[in-house]
Amino acid sequence: MLLGGLTLALVAVGCGDDDGGERADSGGASVRTVIELPDSQPGDVIALRPADGESSVVEWIDRRNGTIRSIDVAVADPSSDDIVVLASLEVGTDGEQRGLLGHTVIDGVRYAAWTDSDTDHLLVGALGDGAPATIDRIIWDAGGTAGGAVGGHLDVTPDGQLVLGIGQLTDWAKDHGSGAMLGLDPAGPPDQDPVVLSDGYTNPFAFAVVADQLWVADNAVDDDTERTGSFDLTDPSGRLDRSDLDATGSSPRAPSAVIAVPGGDVAVCGFLDSELRRWSTDPPGYGDVLGPCLTGAAALPDGTIVTATADGLVAIAP
């Protein structure tokens, strides 16, 4: 997986014990294998999110297959027959980070970000259900992409705007001068001008909107440092650039997801250490390990955290 323009070696941990049952991870958390995904490679299973209106259903993307899938984690010992394919797109997958990259739902409409199979442009659009899914509308065409530092993760602001993280090796970022956190009008045309919410990023794939705060954990490149922090989406004067966020003060983790966790904190998933670690704001830095996490995480209403590991999906008990 290419993050921040550098090819990074994978240090992964297994997600379950030999019989697929419940176990305690190294931090003492109770971790249960939800489902193994033996055909997935590291970096394929991304963009986990709780399904709207459901208490125990998690959706995720298979990046290279271009599919959005879901499963009910409350089902005991689910099999592949319990996986629901919500939508499927033909996507471009040359390189290490192209493919279907992000998805979210606004007022019942699913939006996705992907690299086009013909042009390798990063596109954001509204999708219909089905396999193959219909592309009802293109919201924005970001232009060409390289094999890495694409970005493409999506979330939604409290007032219903799309948030897209775009990496520094895209054509838009090269013209702009850096990667950025962008606001997009979900009803806008493909040539709309995005609003730059926060600037100066390497590859801001790991981010989440938490209430009125946008939390970002950005990768590093060369002699730079990874940074994590937040800014207020409701106050344009308080929007910070990457350099204003806190240096992590730790070895590189290649952040791959950010989620809100019980207690009002956030946690960051690391591709290099395959851990979900709590982020502390006072003083800023990483705290305890909540469980295994390679490329994605979602927090359910009951406090259960579902993460993507090297082997599949696991549930971390509250």
Present the secondary structure layout.
Layout: E1 2-3, E2 6-7, E3 22-24, E4 30-36, E5 45-50, E6 57-62, E7 67-72, E8 84-88, E9 100-106, E10 109-115, E11 122-127, E12 135-141, E13 151-156, E14 162-166, H1 171-176, E15 179-184, E16 195-201, E17 206-210, E18 213-218, E19 227-232, E20 246-247, E21 255-261, E22 265-270, E23 275-281, E24 284-292, E25 296-299, E26 305-308, E27 312-316
Antiparallel strand pairs: 1-2, 3-4, 4-27, 5-6, 6-7, 7-8, 9-10, 10-11, 11-12, 13-14, 14-15, 15-16, 17-18, 18-19, 19-20, 21-22, 22-23, 23-24, 25-26, 26-27
Structure commentary:
With 318 residues, the chain is mostly beta strands. The chain has a five-stranded antiparallel sheet with strand order 3-4-27-26-25, with no helix packed on it. The model is unreliable at 1-20 (pLDDT under 50). It has one helix at 171-176, and strands at 2-3, 6-7, 22-24, 30-36, 45-50, 57-62, 67-72, 84-88, 100-106, 109-115, 122-127, 135-141, 151-156, 162-166, 179-184, 195-201, 206-210, 213-218, 227-232, 246-247, 255-261, 265-270, 275-281, 284-292, 296-299, 305-308, 312-316. β5 and β6 (57-62) form a beta hairpin. The chain contains one helix and 27 strands. The chain has one domain (2-316): TolB, C-terminal domain (Neuraminidase), CATH 2.120.10.30. Helices cover 2% and strands 47% of the residues. The two termini are 30 Å apart.
